[in-house]
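Form 7-S
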Amino acid sequence: MAEQDEVRGPAPRRKVVRSNERHQWEKDRARASRAERAATGATEYETGLSPRDLVFHAEYREAKATEELAALFGLPTGARLLERGYRTRYREEDAPFSIVRSYLPHDLVAANPDLLDETNEPWPGGTHSQLRTVGVEVDRVVEHVTARPATAREAAELGLPDGLPVMALRKVSTDVTGRVVDVSEVTLPADRTELVFTTRLARW
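Output:
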């Protein structure tokens, strides 16, 4: 009797380990040379992959602040925002690591027209470097993480099995004057994302 072929499930996807220490790493790189900033980015930092392993897509559009976003930014409802959508995937996979939507005050970033042009992505050094070109230094980043069922659209885009949840992360970046300068909504697939939080405590 012939041996039955071994039944194998789908290969595990590349894992992302997201640490809160990434924020200082990103800020430090904003003042590095362009060559150093272009050599690697946050996705490489979190996955161990190289730029040649990744497929990146960015899409910009002008948006109006919802009541919720307006309250976070301290702007009137309907104020102009720059909405940026990002997708990055491992070249050997068909689903992105996450779904990212970032909002910046339009009047703030319009001081540098290059920041309104999606064709300048991926920007060496990321958002910290972009904001630095308009005189903004980020002072703190607050992240809120919740878990919820994936929508049908999210499940399809992230390649999630039926019933698998996502982690919804809201990142709010505030500058040294106390002004909110970036609000990002990140949808992370629960089957291949690990969150790591390192808290450094002042010595007695």
